[in-house]
Write a structure and sequence with these properties.
Elements (H helix, E strand, L loop, with lengths): L2 H8 L2 E4 L2 E4 L39 H12 L7 H20 L6 H33 L2
Antiparallel strand pairs: 1-2
Length: 141
């Protein structure tokens, strides 16, 4: 075997009359040639089946993701009431989607939406109640 043919064989390439070409079966996997120079097994290809976020952002569960962001917006006094109630509802919807399909992530985002959305709703309602009470008390003076 010539030196070029040996190098092509170790690089998972095919030599024909047109020149070297990559093996069409799976050109991204390294060749499985057996033990390496140090006696260790050949390196296995890295699993790239996951997403680029490492599972931190539940893009397959948009209800949970929206609940999380709306709960954060719901922390603003008075105007947050318009975001905190939908955050609570979307958090419940996100948990239901997670229960239906365990492969879908986002249970933490959904729980944050439920808890923070519920607390923000109570705080916003008390702020609005205090404002209304203050206006009525001032008007009756």
């Amino acid at each position: 075997m010539t030196r070029i043919a040996a190098a092509a064989a170790s690089a998972n390439m095919l030599i024909d009359d047109k020149g070297p070409t990559m093996n069409e079966s799976n050109p991204y996997n390294p060749p499985q040639t057996g033990p390496g120079l140090d006696g260790s097994a050949a390196q296995q290809p890295m699993d790239t089946s996951g997403d680029g976020t490492g599972g931190l952002i539940p893009y397959k569960n948009p209800a949970a993701l929206a609940a999380y962001y709306l709960a954060i917006v719901g922390l603003f006094p008075v105007i947050g009431i318009f975001a905190s109630i939908p955050a609570f509802v979307l958090g419940i919807m996100g948990l239901r989607k997670k229960a239906q399909n365990p492969a879908v992530k986002g249970s933490v985002h959904a729980w944050i939406g439920i808890i923070l959305g519920g607390l923000a709703t109570l705080v916003n309602l008390s702020c609005i109640g205090s404002i209304v009470f203050g206006i009525i008390a001032e008007a009756s003076r």
